[in-house]
Task: inverse folding
């Protein structure tokens, strides 16, 4: 089961953001995509940050209180982004996600260009699929 790769279960078309978007624009993209966050990309599709619903909510409230939209993605993004590679093990990532690590990881190539994202839900799905196929083959236990 260690051979289950991130690339086989990642979302290859995630919603992404750029640094010039307003918090309202970013929030709208999150709402329509049903993602809880997403990577911020430069013009070369390198991951340079990450924003979440929580950050959008906090800054959207602030803009509402001030009655003027002034916050941009660059003002609220996290810049220390944990990423994974497409050939990384789903099980290794599941162990990281079981703790307080992010719920979403950008999947990047060796140049930090975005290939997709993988979420806790994607990880659960991958493990479930492999456990089901294992039990359907008549095995009594996992080796």
Result:
């Amino acid at each position: 089961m260690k051979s289950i790769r991130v690339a086989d279960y990642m979302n290859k078309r995630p919603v992404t953001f750029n640094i010039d978007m307003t918090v309202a624009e970013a929030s709208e993209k999150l709402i329509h995509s049903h993602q809880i966050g997403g990577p911020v990309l430069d013009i070369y599709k390198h991951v340079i940050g990450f924003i979440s619903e929580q950050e959008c909510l906090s800054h959207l409230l602030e803009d509402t209180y001030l009655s003027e939209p002034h916050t941009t993605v660059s003002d609220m993004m996290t810049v220390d982004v944990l990423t994974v590679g497409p050939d990384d093990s789903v099980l290794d990532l599941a162990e990281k996600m079981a703790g307080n690590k992010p719920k979403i990881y950008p999947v990047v190539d060796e140049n930090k260009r975005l290939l997709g994202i993988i979420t806790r839900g994607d990880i659960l799905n991958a493990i479930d699929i492999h456990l089901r196929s294992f039990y359907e083959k008549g095995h009594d236990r996992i080796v």
